[in-house]
Design goal:
By secondary structure, the chain is of the alpha+beta class. The chain is built from six helices and five strands. It is flat, with a radius of gyration of 23 Å.
Length: about 210
């Protein structure tokens, strides 16, 4: 009868709707799990693994196109002191503040990630070391200005040091990171709150460098 046909069509519609909802929820959960696997839970930016994978792809693309590619390594100065004196929750806020600062100052095609602890990295495709240095300096200055005091007015003077390096034509992402990290060590060793370039011709600043927090 016509009533039975309508009932049957209603059942089919309900089943299809239920199936569609299940698929949508599954797709949403899959996307959420993928995001959690590749992002840092504190800052929301890429974690170390995701950064390395994306940075390597960007570097290879630049090398294939004959375009420059640079990398910045950042490390928050004396971060352990901030945690010890202000508490870990406040330290987490400082990390988030730094992440927000970087995101507002890098270019749309640059890729930003948390490399570990208070260390961060940015890969800049189609950017020579001079451009990367300028961006790193802007980040350093903006972060220092934004974190001179705690919300209670207590002097904080949170600062960041950075190292900048440009990739050679056949360099791997790990080699570029090592070059930027060496520059970062020099920035730390020579007073912190500064940016050092990996192409510094002064070889004396490449030796006997001790990493300081």
């Amino acid at each position: 009868s016509w009533f039975g046909a309508i009932f049957f069509e209603g059942m089919i519609f309900a089943m299809c709707s239920t199936l569609l909802m299940v698929l949508l929820y599954r797709e949403r959960d899959t996307a959420r799990f993928a995001h959690e696997a590749t992002s840092d839970p504190l800052t929301g930016i890429a974690n170390r693994r995701a950064f390395l994978e994306s940075a390597q792809r960007l570097l290879l693309r630049c090398q294939k196109e004959g375009a420059p590619c640079s990398l910045i390594m950042f490390d928050l100065d004396r971060f352990k002191v901030i945690n010890d004196t202000q508490g870990h929750p406040f330290g987490d806020e400082v990390l988030r503040s730094f992440s927000d600062t970087v995101r507002t100052l890098i270019r749309p095609n640059d890729f930003f990630g948390r490399y570990g602890g208070e260390e961060f990295a940015v890969v800049l495709p189609n950017a020579a070391v001079e451009t990367a240095f300028v961006i790193a300096e802007r980040v350093r200055h903006a972060f220092a200005e934004a974190n001179r005091f705690t919300p209670d007015g207590v002097p904080l003077n949170a600062t960041v040091s950075g190292g900048v390096a440009e990739a050679a034509s056949e360099a791997s992402i790990h080699e570029v990171i090592q070059a930027a990290d060496r520059a970062l060590y020099r920035a730390k060793d020579f007073g912190r709150n500064q940016i050092d370039r990996g192409d510094d011709p002064d070889d004396r600043r490449r030796s006997n460098v001790i990493r300081v927090a």
